Amino acid sequence: MVQKMPMVTEPAQTKLTESPLESIGSLDTKVVQSLPKMTEGCRVPVYMDIQKTFVPAEVVSIRELDGVYEFYIHYVNFNRRLDEWVTVDKMNLKELAPPSSSSTSSASSNNTQEVPVIPQPRTVPPSTTTKNTAASSDISAGNTTTFFLSDDADSLNSDLSRAATLPSLTNFPAATSATIAPTKARGNGNTHQSGAHSVTKVKNINLIHLGRYFIKPWYFSPYPEEFTTCPVVYICEFCLKYCKDLDALKRHRTKCTLIHPPGNEIYRNGTISFFEIDGRKNKTYAHNMCLLAKLFLDHKTLYYDTDPFMFYILTEFDAQGFHIVGYFSKDKESSEDYNLSCILTLPPYQKKGYGHFMIEFSYTLSKLEGKIGTPEKPLSDLGLLSYRRYWSEAILEALLKHKPKDGESDYPSLSINDLSEITAIKKEDVLAALQNLNIIRYQQGSYVLSITKDLFDNYQDKRRLRVDTKCLFWTPKIATKPANQFQTK
Ligand code: ACO
Ligand code: ZN
């Protein structure tokens, strides 16, 4: 039997109160007056729509809109993509607690306000308050509400009458990135989130429009300040330039002739392609890719110096061109065997197997380089789930293909090292996957794998998008071992 994988951010289901939301509004004034003032870092149970109950939360930021205070709250034990702005009527103020000493130190130093916590009628339109459906997706709830289809892409493309026919696979010339002004230089710093200023913990982009989709961001991304007040940031799906409105995007599209990401198309199988982009040669694209990715990546470091990275953009082709589905980046050199730095499947394409496909692609490149690889840490909750799944499948596939040599018993012996060599998965990850599959046992002084037929069948049943090495046109810059030492399929 396949062991059920634990949900990494499975919330602690602390049921705080059964009282319906309405009763909070009629809170006794005497209680309110005796409560401490609300500041960033305060803890208070907040009614969470998707859980349909009150959940412990921390106030990250406070703002005032037309006389109404709003509180950006983080639900403790939930992923930050669920953080949202709420009004006080969603809070159980009876249990309001002052900031703990650790949260006060990490709270914003220049933006701490104290506000009275008397419930106020909500006057702000719901779109700016609690109904952040983008955030309302956690692992168990799925990510189905994070995007919706837009007609703008069709109108854009018909305006420009730039229907594409699938060209033959060639090395497209690199884009002329000079047409897009780079955003203000911010050095090579990063936006690592832990302990970061509270500003970077608050989602700053309301909605993006990309190709056929409107997508709700999950996290903060350092787009220029003036974009944070736009109801929608319009992004060119081919060069990733960001515009303040649809007209600006339309004007841009009259000049931007791209119908695919810049760089070389290195893989094509049917309508699926990969484009390889050098972060040094296509700085603007790489920079825009990082900004877009950061909207969905919380704890990864965002490098402004994109020179050390290659970017692999996964696209799907149709009559309008090669639409971005996701990407992964990779260090050109890694002393820690990293073969993937960041990975993203854009929300409209998630949970369809593209993440698995990109991970397989990253290991295929490692095999061609004659290297063992591992993803850069830390992994996100969704990243960990996807990697566990990939590692398990790759290892079971290797075990299935492995036949006993002449003279060997029916039980072929295979070391962790062998599995690592066959799959290009780092030894530590092989071991973690075997443990996660719960198939490794210590028996009579040695480790044995005990695998049921069910487990094999279950993994083989999966109909997956797979990397076909015949469709890959790529040679590594420097291969450390002969590529044929690894199996690339
Ligand atoms: N809930 C439960 N399991 C999930 C979910 C989910 N929401 N998403 C992925 N998985 C697991 C499943 O086990 C799935 O296997 P299955 O198809 O057998 O069920 C497996 O992951 C692979 O799923 P895919 O459909 O191939 O993955 P997807 O295209 O959705 O991409 C990714 C996964 C890239 C992690 C995506 O969720 C994403 O972009 N998330 C936001 C950015 C992020 O967190 N990136 C990883 C950061 S770590 C790093 O960059 C090294
Ligand atoms: Zn463009």
TrEMBL record:
Ordered alphabetically, the record's keywords are: Acetylation, Acyltransferase, DNA damage, DNA repair, Metal-binding, Nucleus, Transcription, Transcription regulation, Transferase, Zinc, Zinc-finger
Q: Where is the MYST-type HAT domain?
A: 200-476
Broad class of enzyme this protein falls into: transferase
Q: Which residues form the active site?
A: 376 (proton donor/acceptor)
Superkingdom of origin: Eukaryota
Question: Primary place of residence?
Answer: nucleus
| Compositional bias segments (type: Low complexity) | 97-112
Q: What is its EC number?
A: 2.3.1.48
Q: State the residue spans of region: Disordered.
A: 96-137
Enumerate the subcellular locations listed in this protein's record, separating them with semicolons.
Answer: Nucleus
Q: Spans of biased composition, class Polar residues?
A: 125-137
List, alphabetically, the GO terms of the cellular component aspect.
NuA4 histone acetyltransferase complex; nucleus
Alphabetized Gene3D superfamilies for the sequence: 2.30.30.140, 3.40.630.30, N-acetyl transferase-like, Winged helix-like DNA-binding domain superfamily/Winged helix DNA-binding domain
Q: Which GO terms describe its biological process?
A: double-strand break repair via homologous recombination; regulation of DNA-templated transcription
Does this UniProt record's set of keywords contain NAD?
Answer: no
Molecular function via GO: chromatin binding; histone H4K16 acetyltransferase activity; zinc ion binding
Q: Which PANTHER family match?
A: HISTONE ACETYLTRANSFERASE, HISTONE ACETYLTRANSFERASE KAT5
Q: So what family is this one in?
A: Belongs to the MYST (SAS/MOZ) family.
Q: What's this protein's name?
A: histone acetyltransferase
From which source organism is this entry? Rotaria socialis
